[in-house]
Every structure is written in structure tokens, then in C-alpha cells.
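Subject: F0F1 ATP synthase subunit I

B.,
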Amino acid sequence: MDARTPNRTPFHRLPAFPVLLLQCLVMLGVAAILWFFQGPVAGYSGLLGGLIALVPNAYFAYRVYRYSGARSARAIVRELYSGEAGKLILTAALFVLVWVGVKPLEVAAVFGGYLAVLAVGASALLIVRGFPKH
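Prediction pasted inline below.
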């Protein structure tokens, strides 16, 4: 096997999947709560904010977990750096797309959805640790 052997684990079996799943559920919950209490503009604004956090996180998880094993250590480190750079660029691009392309938009709801999804990612170690292994 090559030192840079791709990980053939399905995406739903990756260690980051429980975190991404919880981020998705939080995003949908925040959007539903905003929609119910503040109206449809706040609802879709919160959903977009959550997507701005979720999509780059999923990209990062895909990049980082592409390789596995001790012989892939250099490839994994390289993917960490390029995945983080891509995540930052993707986040900035999504914010620009939302600000420019979506009208009307509730700014507070966008940031609320974004921060709620980010908070789930910040507690990722606790989430992954408590997730049962199959």
C-alpha cells in the first residue's frame, strides 16, 4: 500500500460525522425557531448562517479524513493545512454570496445561525467522545 492511501471509509462513518450531523440539526432547529418567532426572513436568514458554518466544516472533515494510518502522517498534516485554508476561503465566499445575493436578509439571524453551528463545532471533542462506536 502507498503511504498516501486514501481512506475508503464512507462519509457517514468518519469521526467528524456525529458533529456534522448535530450541527445540521442545530441549524435546522435555530432556523425553525427563528421562523416561528420572528418570521420567514429571520428563518431563512438563520438557515443561511448555519449553512455558512456547516458547509466549510463538512469540506474540512472530508479533506482531513481522506487519509488514514501512520504512513499517511505527512499527507494528513498537509490536508489539515489545506483543509483549514479552504474552509476559511469557503466561509468568506459564502458570507459574500449571502450578503450580496439574498434580499431581504436579517443580519442578526444570519450571525445567530452561524454562531449556533460554530458552538456545536467548538464542543466537538465532547460530542465525538460520547458517540457510540459501531
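The first helix runs from residue 17 to 38.

T.
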